[in-house]
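Lab notebook, entry 117. We have the chain sequence and a SMILES string for zinc ion, and the next step in the workflow is to get a structural model of the bound complex before anyone spends time on docking refinements. Request logged below.

Task: model protein plus zinc ion, output structure tokens.
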Amino acid sequence: MILALSIVLLILILNLFNIRICFIYNLFHIPCPGCGCTRAFIELLKGNINKSIEYNPLPLLLAIICVIIVLWNIIDYIRKEQTFKLFVKKYQKIIILLSIILTIIVWVINLRNPLLY
Ligand SMILES: [Zn+2]
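Result returned:
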């Protein structure tokens, strides 16, 4: 946990100085599916949803999914059910496939995004 927080802090500090640590961008000079996520996340924290989507739509989608997961688990806890766990178990392969497709779509979008060059 401390390591993960340290990495996030390091990325945010490097981002402030406009230093890109993306391996794919530094090697091939094209943005990866995750490029712009830090800037999009910062804009999301500022409440600039449109600007966040312009950088990368993944952090907004991730935030929405996280809210749904938390609410779903709270409802499950109150009702003493495990519908979320059953849903994930039942649709695990579809969730993984959709995640891969979504990542590819975002990558194609990122390749044409002038903000990421
Ligand atoms: Zn990248």
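Notes for the group: The mean pLDDT is 91. Worth checking against the assay data. The pocket of zinc ion is lined by residues 22, 24-25, 31-32, 34-35 (CB under 6 Å).
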